[in-house]
What does this fold into?
Amino acid sequence: MAEERATPVWMDLLWLLFLAGLALLPPIHELHKQVILLVLGLFQLIEKPLIRDAGERRGPVLAVMVKLTLATVLLNHTRDVSPILSSYWPVFFVPVTTAAIYFGPVGTLLWTSITSAAYCSYLIPAMKDFELDWNKGGSQLLLRVLFFFFVGMTVNRFVVEYRLQVRRYQLLSQSLAETNRELRQAQDEARRAERLAALGQLSAGLAHEIRNPLGVIKGSAEILNQKLAGSDALAQELSGYIYTEVNRVSALVSRFLDFARPARLELHPEQMPPLLDACLKMAADLGASAKVRILREYAPGLPPAMIDRELCEQVFTNLILNACEAMGEQDGDLKIRINSSQAQPAAQVWVEIEDSGPGIAPDLREQIFNPFFTTKKTGVGLGLAIVSKIVDAHGGSVKVESSPGRGACFRVTLPAAVSVPARVEKMTV
Ligand SMILES: Nc1ncnc2c1ncn2[C@@H]1O[C@H](COP(=O)(O)OP(=O)(O)OP(=O)(O)O)[C@@H](O)[C@H]1O
Ligand SMILES: [Mg+2]
It folds into this structure.
């Protein structure tokens, strides 16, 4: 309610000038009148800090009451025959406009009624001494009271409109500040992504260059291993180390290149159930635990998905391998669900791979998709980074749900090929 009024100093000076003008008008030798005008002037100057100190609710009430009291007393000391006939009656506009500035429409009406009552209260002593001519005096009085309301409500309308405008600007500036913050964040992220992309390009180039000499070392180590078979045991052991370690580095470089190379998608409509079956077989060939029980829940009448088969095989093989690795050598259930949904703007096919392993801690759920994040002794930490890169390239999404001790469920959503006629699309991302 008690909003800060932006009153410049010159307005205060103008107000004092106006009161000085009143002081110089008759009755000049009435000391009470001059004192009241002085108090009114001083109060105007200290009004703002006083309201701030008195609080949002009490401050404005105090300000209006002080001004109303001063106006009422002033009328008594500027009387001609009776206070009701004082030509200083417009001084009541001071409490009325103050109320209009600080209160809402109802408060303004209330304070204007109180002001009118204070003014009309001088009618009681006047009626004892004079006879009131209702046609002349009565209507004039009513006119003045009506003017109090007119001025009060007009000022209040402007003030309410002004407050609304200020509120609108505040909200606008808040939303602008928020947009600015988001923009700066996006710029920071873009800069970071640019730096990472440059780093990725550099390391991909480096990995590519390393791969060729590695191939030569690998081949040579293999021949060396064969040549040394049956000879010196130490030499044979050492060449065995060279061979296995070179193999490991070579596999690492290949995986890294899978991740760093831009994916060139060759999109075809593909049925997901046979693709998942092929991935299960691939995972088994790659050493996925044989003890795992596989439960297939494939919905009937599934639409084909618009995907790059080879890349999606990498996605699901990685997820199946992770699930099997999570369940370790113990028994476990691996559930594969395939279904479709009519999401907007296009239909989707989703695949869920759920295991009964130890699950993923909530604070790791975002990190597991970062490249080189691994909790495994021999892991590289590129499996899920490759998964999310390939799925993103398809315009799909990968989400994980897990509660520690209750397994993990990865859901991959891919665009369905229902509305798209069977065709081949090529795109590079
Ligand atoms: N099904 C799962 N259950 C529990 N933890 C999982 C599961 N899948 C992934 N994780 C966690 O996420 C981490 C990252 O997985 P990601 O596949 O990216 O790398 P990795 O399996 O460790 O190594 P690799 O590059 O050989 O795949 C894993 O080390 C593991 O901690
Ligand atoms: Mg993995």
The pocket of magnesium ion (ligand 2) is lined by residues 318, 321-322, 383 (CB under 6 Å). Strands lie at 264-270, 292-298, 305-307, 332-341, 348-355, 397-402, 408-415, 425-428. The chain has a mean pLDDT of 88.
